[in-house]
Protein 1
Amino acid sequence: MTDADPIRAAGCVLWRVSPRVDGIELALVHRPKWADWSYPKGKLKRGEDALAGALREVLEETGMTCAPGAGLPTVRYLANGRPKEVRYWAAESTGGAFVPNREVDRVLWLSPTAARHRLTHDRDKALVDALLNALHLA
């Protein structure tokens, strides 16, 4: 791998049926190192399949197990001057419990509209609509 090769990462737009109102909620994670709100995601291990890595990252960062669904758009951007690409999947939460850890200190479950407003990076906001389209809720 060279500095010109993209950093490979994967994650999920984790969702659940809302326990309070009609509709769904999305899980956003807060990373104190970056002071941002985003989706659970992370770098792939050498030779790791992208979907397996996405599910691993969800479990590590949120404590949640999930059922993966449709693939969502890949997000590409520069990270410290190096290209990075993050593959995403829609994933329904199937259980688990969040425990703060060294990477993630908070998880919020928000409506799609609230999640769109809370996300730190504009590049992540389009994934809300992609999820709603994949779930036929748009």
Note: The radius of gyration is 14 Å.
Protein 2
Amino acid sequence: MTPVDRDILERLENGDENELVLTPALIAANTDWGHQTIREHVSKLREYGLVEYCEKERGIYRLSDLGREYLAGELDTEELEDN
């Protein structure tokens, strides 16, 4: 898990507010990371099941249940690497 990955998950979680559904471009616009970097990391996070498509055709992502578990400290990244 990299700082980029963590920032993506936290942006989708949106703190104490309602969770967000965002495209990689919108995630990039709301973080300090570039659009291409976000695209690459979102793809990996999706492979690991931490984010999922909200609307695949439009490339809109949301936090998955597994992503919520990770942010809550209930999931170790080593468990992800074993999959």
Note: The two ends are 15 Å apart (CA to CA).
Protein 3
Amino acid sequence: MSNFPSLPENAHLSDVFKRFPKGVGPLLALHDALLRSPSQFSIAERELIAAFVSGTNACAFCYGAHTLMARAFGIDADVFETMLEDPAAAPIDAKMVPVLLLARALTTEPGKSPARESRAVLEAGWSEESLFEAISIIGLYNYMNRLVDGAGLVPGPEYLEPGEAQLEARRGSTYSEWGAGLGLNSDETG
């Protein structure tokens, strides 16, 4: 149930953004820049980072949304629970393990410098640009988890058992396009 009396009982993030549009346009543009622009990380890997941070934070709404997005871009459904328990045991590319360990460090100990974890990301073969992107995605999803949990949002059934049509729809749009489909014009929400 939403923490905002003006929102529907089973409010979605779209309801929050429509009710409180200030800054939504730049926020969605940041999502696109980090999760959809050209990168050494695939879209699936970036969505996996978002899902991992959200799962680490126990943010059910964002964890559901980003496991769905990661699945839409090719991550197998069997990855997620194992990944949260032990990234090294998850059936993922070994290069992603240090990225997820960095995500865990920045999420669970935000005041501590993750120098060792950052070095491990670079030693795994990721570029400095990729390290910065990973840190940015981790920061973005710690923010989004606080926003969603603060608003009192819970995941709907669309995240629990998505059909192929829903997965295909996720592959077909950017975050800004999703916002535009809601009537959120970036000129008005900046």
Note: The two ends are 27 Å apart (CA to CA).
